[in-house]
């Protein structure tokens, strides 16, 4: 019989004929004992990148994964394919855990899944040290970076573990969500050289991104769910209270709905999760506590009822739609006021000042996403450092309203920002342009500025949203975290000089919502 190869294992153990993009390269590197970072979209097939090498090496592959809920399923699936694997996490009692480690030591398993929290236990590293570990796979590797949106202190242990394990395992890190900065951070902490980054891109061509503004959210949601009442989807809320409220509202309207948040008893949460996974309930209303490790392929829509805290979280949560590759929708219901709750979360967090400023900056990007006139998919990919063409299917690409030349209005805003010498933020710029007569305007004598009251015929909220549009379009630049100041970019300066034009689709006029029967 011929020796096993990655290709033969793919076919015989997993039943697939061809590798997906990136898989073959990743496996080859790992088998050459070269540390590797795999960046692939959700559903791209990251698991095989370490499962196949695990089967081709003599020693053990340790998989660190925060997805405790998923571990048992993954291990069961491997066992069903005749692959000896096991897991150790908080759901396994200590005696059983010892027993499994013991078996691992005797070479009974090819893969051992562990929860990152284990790594912080003093004895655990020593126990691992007694095993012959050939490969250390770090799933959800962005959790190692403080710049990421899901930082886990226990992941920092991995740096030491990767260095100190006596068997010097090869390291493979995997993630579906990493900005350039986060990817660099992962590489540094796990000794993965840039040449070892395998990036197949983040694009999810089957997702249609939409931003819905200026609508009554409850009415929109009810309309949408009634129009799509045979489909499964997730509605994300910013708070537990909002989950409870929307759950009652939807339930009252006869929607097949379940709820999930961290404030519910565990048994109830688990029951609801199962109801959703097995399609006994079609819609899940939840906080972001729901979804990590949920592998439901037929989620047709993910709606965010409030704006999330950053674009990475948004993309990851929205990305739970359409894992099966079929067309699916990712909808953000946007209201500027919702940013307040996010700021509150940041203020209340126990990170240091640097951390908070970084969180504020990320929130700004999220706000720009909601206000950009550019392709939404492209906006997201650009944020992750990937160039792409307009997707042709997001709400901006499909926006057929005529673009209006708004160069003159843009010039008013830009010159106002110039007059304020980059020392003030959106609130002050809005007040000056609107000609507000408040304490701070008087204090700074801004009523004397030539730009004072230049846009007095507009509502303040529209001026503010126009400023967001200009920021999202790269004409203005917001600097600093909590109270960002506005400055004019190179592109903005071109507009001021009359060298570039600005156009905008007409402001959204609220579509009368389809009548909802009570
Ligand atoms: P990820 O972890 O990147 O989100 P998974 O590893 O869970 O993705 O894989 C997603 C799905 O794609 C799984 O059902 C997996 O069996 C399937 N898959 C992975 N690789 C291939 C392949 N080469 N050919 C066909 N299907 C594959
Ligand atoms: Zn688009």
Write a structural description.
This protein has 518 residues and is of the alpha/beta class. It contains 20 helices and 17 strands. The chain has a seven-stranded parallel β-sheet, with helices on both faces. It has a six-stranded parallel β-sheet with strand order 8-13-12-9-11-10. The longest helix has 19 residues, at 353-371. The radius of gyration is 26 Å and the shape is globular. The structure holds adenosine-5'-diphosphate and zinc ion (ZN). The site of adenosine-5'-diphosphate has 13 residues, from loops.
Set down the secondary structure blueprint:
Blueprint: H1 6-14, H2 23-31, E1 36-39, H3 48-56, E2 60-64, H4 68-80, E3 85-88, H5 94-105, E4 111-114, H6 122-129, E5 133-138, H7 153-164, E6 170-175, H8 180-189, E7 197-199, E8 207-213, H9 217-227, E9 232-236, H10 240-252, E10 257-260, H11 266-277, E11 283-286, E12 299-304, H12 311-318, E13 328-334, H13 339-348, H14 353-371, H15 376-383, E14 403-405, H16 407-419, H17 426-434, H18 439-444, H19 460-472, E15 476-479, E16 485-488, H20 490-496, E17 503-505
Parallel strand pairs: 1-6, 1-7, 2-4, 2-5, 3-4, 5-6, 8-13, 9-11, 9-12, 10-11, 12-13
Antiparallel strand pairs: 14-17, 15-16
Helix pairs in contact: 2-3, 13-14, 14-19, 16-20, 17-19
Bound molecules: adenosine-5'-diphosphate (ADP) and zinc ion.
The site of zinc ion (ZN) has 8 residues, from α15.
């Amino acid at each position: 019989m011929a020796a096993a190869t990655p290709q033969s294992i793919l076919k015989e153990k997993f039943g697939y004929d061809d590798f997906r993009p990136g898989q073959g390269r990743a496996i080859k590197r790992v088998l050459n004992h070269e540390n590797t970072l795999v960046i692939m979209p959700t559903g791209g097939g990251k698991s095989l990148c370490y499962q196949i090498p695990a089967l081709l090496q003599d020693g053990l592959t340790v998989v660190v994964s925060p997805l405790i809920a998923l571990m048992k399923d993954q291990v069961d699936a491997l066992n069903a394919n005749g692959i000896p694997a096991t897991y150790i996490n908080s759901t396994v009692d200590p005696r059983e855990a010892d027993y499994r480690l013991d078996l691992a030591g005797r070479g009974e398993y090819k893969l051992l899944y562990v929860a990152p929290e284990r790594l912080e236990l003093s004895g655990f590293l020593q126990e691992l040290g007694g095993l012959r570990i050939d490969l250390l796979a770090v799933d959800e590797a962005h959790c190692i970076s403080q710049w990421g949106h899901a930082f886990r202190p226990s992941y920092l242990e991995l740096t030491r573990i990767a260095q100190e394990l006596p068997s010097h395992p090869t390291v493979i890190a995997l993630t579906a969500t990493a900005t350039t900065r986060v990817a660099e951070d992962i590489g540094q902490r796990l000794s993965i050289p840039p040449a070892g980054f395998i990036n197949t891109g983040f694009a999810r061509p089957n997702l249609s991104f939409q931003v819905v503004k200026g609508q009554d959210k409850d009415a929109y949601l009810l309309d949408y769910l009634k129009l799509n009442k045979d489909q499964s989807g997730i509605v994300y809320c910013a708070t537990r209270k909002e989950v409870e409220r929307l759950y009652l509202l939807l339930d009252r309207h006869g929607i097949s709905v379940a709820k999930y948040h961290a404030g519910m008893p565990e048994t109830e949460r688990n029951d609801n999760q199962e109801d959703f996974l097995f399609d006994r309930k079609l819609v899940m209303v939840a906080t972001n506590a729901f979804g990590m490790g949920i592998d439901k392929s037929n989620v047709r829509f993910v709606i965010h009822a409030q704006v999330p805290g950053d674009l990475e979280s948004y993309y990851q949560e929205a990305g739970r739609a359409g894992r099966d590759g079929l067309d699916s929708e990712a909808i953000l219901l946007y209201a500027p006021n919702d940013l307040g709750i996010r700021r509150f979360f940041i203020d209340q967090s126990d990170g240091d000042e640097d951390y908070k400023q970084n969180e504020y900056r990320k929130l700004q990007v999220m706000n720009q996403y909601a206000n950009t006139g550019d392709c939404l998919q492209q906006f997201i990919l650009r944020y992750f450092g990937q160039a792409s063409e307009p997707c042709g299917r997001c709400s901006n690409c499909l926006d057929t309203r005529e673009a209006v030349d708004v160069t003159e209005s843009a010039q008013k805003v830009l010159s106002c920002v110039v007059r304020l010498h980059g020392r003030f933020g959106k609130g002050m710029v809005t007040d000056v342009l609107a000609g507000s007569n408040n304490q701070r305007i008087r204090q700074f004598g801004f009523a004397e500025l030539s730009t004072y009251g230049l846009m007095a015929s507009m509502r303040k909220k529209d001026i503010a949203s126009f400023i967001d549009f200009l920021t999202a379009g790269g004409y203005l630049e917001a600097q600093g975290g909590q109270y960002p100041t506005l400055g004019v970019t190179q592109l903005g300066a071109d507009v001021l000089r009359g060298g570039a034009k600005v156009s905008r689709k007409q402001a959204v006029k609220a579509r009368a919502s389809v009548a909802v029967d009570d």
